[in-house]
Amino acid sequence: MPRHHMRYAVIGTGAIGGFYGAKLQRSGLEVHFLLHNDHAHVQRHGLKIYSKDGDFSLPAVHAHVKSATIPVCDVVLIALKTTRNYLLEDLLPPWVADHGILLTLQNGLGVEPRLAQLVNPGRVILGGLCFICSHRGAPGEIHHQDYGSLTIGAYGDGYKPQGVTPLLETMANHWRQAGVETFLTPDLGYARWKKLLWNVPFNSLSVVLSATTTEMVTNPQTRTLARDLMEEVQQAAASQGVAIPTTDVEQMLHSTATMAPYVTSMKRDYDHKMPLELEAILGYPLAVARRKGVALPRMTMLHQLLQHMDRHNRHSGREVPGETPAVAPA
Amino acid sequence: MPRHHMRYAVIGTGAIGGFYGAKLQRSGLEVHFLLHNDHAHVQRHGLKIYSKDGDFSLPAVHAHVKSATIPVCDVVLIALKTTRNYLLEDLLPPWVADHGILLTLQNGLGVEPRLAQLVNPGRVILGGLCFICSHRGAPGEIHHQDYGSLTIGAYGDGYKPQGVTPLLETMANHWRQAGVETFLTPDLGYARWKKLLWNVPFNSLSVVLSATTTEMVTNPQTRTLARDLMEEVQQAAASQGVAIPTTDVEQMLHSTATMAPYVTSMKRDYDHKMPLELEAILGYPLAVARRKGVALPRMTMLHQLLQHMDRHNRHSGREVPGETPAVAPA
């Protein structure tokens, strides 16, 4: 099919889906956006992207408040926060059971197998890893501060490596013509585990310690802890047949130490009292490793700590109602 | 020696040393208090104890600003916070090398062997475990809210059990006559490790999670984590030849769940921006277990997290000077 006849659907028009969908539409593709809160505004005024690569507006977009009105598309981008995945079954257009390529731009591990459960066998599922700093502004506005690349790989049962297929090459072409730096990976599982190598220690510890990346790699104790956690990610990956070389660990510690201090995405969610993406970053990786008999005490402990912190963060206060804390005996 | 001729020295006249020392003096013993900040005030006005068992004043006490002026005593109580143990060498009266029984009322593990290094071989060293809620008020004032018992055991090299010696019986007699509920333990090491069974999870997690004991044992994830940590304490103790039965673990979880919600002593120190007793609660136990080849990942991780939090808590802020945190790529 000629490129300009390609139709995309975007499920979740936030900082990721809104940004990439807008780039695709600007490049001449037909894009259908599913929105919730901002629907009326976007239907009237379109989308506005403030980008370090140049601002642009799309005065008219196909805005949908329900997936039922989205016509059959060639590609469906999934760009919800993984914490809202319990909505997926209702948000996916009914025709995806039989039509369209699914490309998830979500974080962490386990998002592709979850999609596979929701559609008929044989549907093509791709995973996309976004390396981008962007956030939502006013209704219909997205701010793109930095980076913006995408790495795409094909998903096979249990993250079995699928190689670089012709379909992936075609997809990469679309994205590159839309001005998105695009990489292809023959092994989506490796790419996802390698991203976890960073996300597990730095997203998690940034919330527990209220620290920036620079603080975490500078302080000797937390640097050691970050390395210990990375080794557990290596063990978890190995339990799934994915070999992460130790040079990846060292290189990632080094590059984190030399980059500008960052507030991680999980810390940003925490500061905004949003739910944390714990299942995708910790829960699912822990569960698949546990099924292979691999115990990961540090990651388990992080998961336990963060579940507690997440719950308290999103609820009113930390006090136990009706009880007055006393001082403990020494 | 008749009881009323006994002389006590108190090194560290705070919430613990001031309280117990005052009780001893009130019962007729001669007590010498070493003080720093409050010395002038206490020398002039004495000590005032506000206690749930009845308030009392000691208008005249022997107050010393330097240990050099303390006469030779029969018993030296060590009641410094363990975080100030680097001062011990200077604060112990020179005559303790050859005279007097040392009785440390400090928290955690490793305080007795530390004392043993500072005195000549053969000095009697006893360990006391205080179960008390008390805190300092205005200069010379101590508030005793709850509990107040003391458990004493004799220290032998490597915490080898010493049994209940006649000396311990004599000591217990002194304390009981001073109105202190006193227990004797034949195995100081077991008593110290058993106290760690509670202190390791609940002191530590209360700071990391900013939670009360009730919250920690009520939430299923943190209750599991507390139990996992207790099992590591069991392993550490076992590496030192100390058997902590699993019934101790279950009983402690149960009693913590049924008692009133507590702010632990470490959380209180943290909230007052005081140094945390990390070495006595985590560092020393981890070090002796490591020397026996026992790795304790959860306790190690707690130690790493708390060292970071402690340092940041006591210093001005959490920002890295001159650097502006950016937002991390997703």
From TrEMBL, chains A, B:
Asked if the record carries the keyword Transcription regulation, the reply is no
UniProt keyword list: NADP, Oxidoreductase, Pantothenate biosynthesis
- Please give the function described in this protein's UniProt entry: Catalyzes the NADPH-dependent reduction of ketopantoate into pantoic acid.
The UniProt family comment states: Belongs to the ketopantoate reductase family.
Reaction catalysed by this chain? (R)-pantoate + NADP(+) = 2-dehydropantoate + NADPH + H(+)
Q: Which organism is it from?
A: Candidatus Synechococcus spongiarum LMB bulk15M
- Residues in Ketopantoate reductase C-terminal domain copies: 190-309
Q: Where's the Ketopantoate reductase N-terminal domain? A: 8-155
Q: In which pathway does it act?
A: Cofactor biosynthesis; (R)-pantothenate biosynthesis; (R)-pantoate from 3-methyl-2-oxobutanoate: step 2/2
Which Gene Ontology cellular component annotation is one that this UniProt entry carries? cytoplasm
Q: Name the domain of life.
A: Bacteria
| Any Pfam family | ApbA_C
What InterPro entries has UniProt attached to this entry? 6-PGluconate_DH-like_C_sf, 6PGD_dom2, ApbA, KPA_reductase, KPR-Related, KPR_N, NAD(P)-bd_dom_sf
Q: Does the keyword NADP apply?
A: yes
Q: Name one GO molecular function term.
A: 2-dehydropantoate 2-reductase activity
UniProt protein name = 2-dehydropantoate 2-reductase
Q: What is its EC number?
A: 1.1.1.169
Task: Write out the GO biological process terms.
Answer: pantothenate biosynthetic process
